[in-house]
Design goal:
Layout lengths: L14 H6 L4 H7 L7 H8 L8 E5 L5 H10 L2 E6 L2 H8 L7 H4 L2 E5 L12 E7 L7 H14 E11 L3 H17 L8 H7 L9 H10 L3 E7 L9 H10 L6 H4 L2 E7 L2 H13 L2
Parallel strand pairs: 1-2, 1-4, 2-3, 4-5
Antiparallel strand pairs: 5-7, 6-7
Length: 280
């Protein structure tokens, strides 16, 4: 008898979860009736270099505001999938912001990242933010296989995940000790932090993620993303944290978020990275 593969229940991600996720971002999107997203979300989209006429897929889209904005403001056909219905229900209410013609270029649907319901070679761009850490290793491998199937030969895929396993085991613990020395006890002990983030079933190390991408035929580069908001009251610790998140080698353990940029072709990846360096 085979052993059933582990998975995290979709019902856990209820309306309360999505209302608290990325606090402020969804409200900002709704307040601007789909015409604006936060600075942090614009940074995410900048990695993709979206152009009118492209088809972009957001895996684990949650409420879908990012792919809806990309469709409305950047002229792409936006596909968003999530396996939790609660987030999609929140996003569906935002479709009223768009005209009937605009809605024809947006599709939000419930689907599993391990079996994406689109034709081979559909996507010019694939993105996924804060989703990988919610997947068990077997799910991640199937997702990357699906991404390889869907991404066009000259397409680009951008994945962001946080926290990393290196940050949890290193930077988080040292950060907590440093804060406690100045009377800041807001960070939970490591074991309690892990228990509090039960949905993060498998946090990845940078090396582990790059290896998985390579095994599925992707050429990739990895970037460490410093936090935009540190939540540290002590000025000395705040300056120190900013420094540690930017120092070579050290930042691998103090940056909670990593972003990978991938392509099927090495030259296409180089060309895409060149456009990122050139800026808008």
């Amino acid at each position: 008898m085979g052993t059933e593969k582990p998975s995290f229940p979709s019902e856990w991600y209820d309306h309360r979860y999505f209302d608290g996720m990325a606090a402020g971002g969804f409200e900002y999107f709704c307040r601007h009736r789909g015409r604006a997203v936060t600075v942090a979300r614009m940074r995410d989209l900048a990695y993709l270099q979206l152009c009118p006429g492209m088809t972009a897929l957001d895996i684990g889209c949650g409420r879908g505001e990012l792919i809806m904005y990309a469709s409305l403001e950047m002229g792409v056909t936006g596909l968003g999938i999530d396996y939790a219905s609660a987030g999609l229900e929140r996003g569906a209410k935002c479709l009223e912001f768009f005209s009937e013609s605009d809605r024809k270029h947006i599709l939000l649907c419930r689907a599993d990242a391990t079996a994406l319901p689109f034709r081979t070679g559909t996507c010019d761009r694939i993105m996924s933010w804060a989703t990988l850490e919610h997947l068990f290793p077997w799910q991640l491998e199937l997702m990357l296989s699906e991404c390889s199937r869907l991404l066009k030969r000259d397409g680009i895929m951008v994945l962001g995940t946080h926290p990393t396993s290196w940050y949890e085991r290193g930077g988080y613990r040292l950060n907590r000790i440093a804060r406690s020395l100045v009377g800041d006890h807001t960070l939970l002990p490591y074991e309690e932090m892990k228990a509090d983030g039960v949905e993060h079933v498998h946090t990845l190390s940078p090396i582990e993620l790059l290896h998985s991408l390579h095994s599925h035929g992707f050429y990739s580069v990895l970037r460490f993303e410093p936090r935009t908001k540190l939540g540290i009251n002590s000025k000395v610790l705040r300056v120190t944290a900013k420094l540690l998140e930017r120092l070579p080698v050290v930042k691998a353990f103090f940056c909670a978020e990593i972003v990978t940029i991938s392509a099927k072709n090495r030259q296409h990846l180089r060309e895409h990275l060149a456009t990122l360096k050139a800026g808008p």
